[in-house]
Amino acid sequence: METLSALLALLAGLDAALIQAVADHGDLVYALICLTIYAETAFVVTVFLPGGTLVFTAAALAARGTLDVWPVALGCYAAATLGDMTNFAIGRALRRGAARGAGGGLAGTLRKRLLPPQQLEAARRAFARHGAATVLLSRFVPILRAAFPMAVAMAGMGWGRFIGLNALGKVIWAAVFVGGGYGLGGIPWFARHFGAVVVAAALFPLLIAAARQLLMHLLDRRCRPENQSSPKTP
């Protein structure tokens, strides 16, 4: 609970932190934003970084004149694209290593450490069900954001197809977060309640994911045979 409270406090004060960073470091803030976006998915273990929220906040500050919107938009697009490509490259390397070692050895250990089996399976199920649309939209889903590029690489997707889908997906992602933040950032009510709006926006995907899991669990229980008795022993 303490970790969650600290994270929510960070999100609520993200605009003030960025404003102070601009005052202290000037244009270096653009590099810091891009590095955060890149690291969020490039290395899996840094998925906790507030990538989308940071982009949204930076775009909102651009609407108020604190930042320039074009470096935010283009830099975040490039950083997100390169981050997922790095994640994909790691997945390809682990797939080759696991194949040579029959799933064991260093590659197998790293694969399990970086991408838990449940995340890998969730990404594979999503891709099997929705195909290319999952590559386009995976960055919007907290569970899939860091797992999906590596998962599809391990599943055997080639570089050509991934690069095309990844580039298009990041156009959609950047348009939503940069466009949304910039469009709302100049509205006085939004500026006054920025912290609460950002926290709500960050929690919304998690609530949707939790509601979906609960619904699937209830449907699964309902579909099970009501009378499942264990086999009788003679």
UniProtKB/TrEMBL annotation:
Source superkingdom: Bacteria
Gene Ontology cellular component annotations, sorted alphabetically: plasma membrane
Main location class: membrane
InterPro entries given in the database record: DedA-like, VTT_dom
Bilayer-crossing regions: 37-62, 69-90, 171-190, 196-215
Keywords, sorted A to Z: Cell membrane, Membrane, Transmembrane, Transmembrane helix
Domain VTT: from-to ranges: 50-182
Topology within the bilayer: Multi-pass membrane protein
One Pfam short name: VTT_dom
Record bears the keyword Transmembrane helix: yes
Cellular compartments annotated: Cell membrane
Sequence similarity: Belongs to the DedA family.
Protein's UniProt name: Hypothetical membrane protein
Natural source organism: Solidesulfovibrio magneticus (strain ATCC 700980 / DSM 13731 / RS-1) (Desulfovibrio magneticus)
Phylogenetic lineage: Bacteria, Pseudomonadati, Thermodesulfobacteriota, Desulfovibrionia, Desulfovibrionales
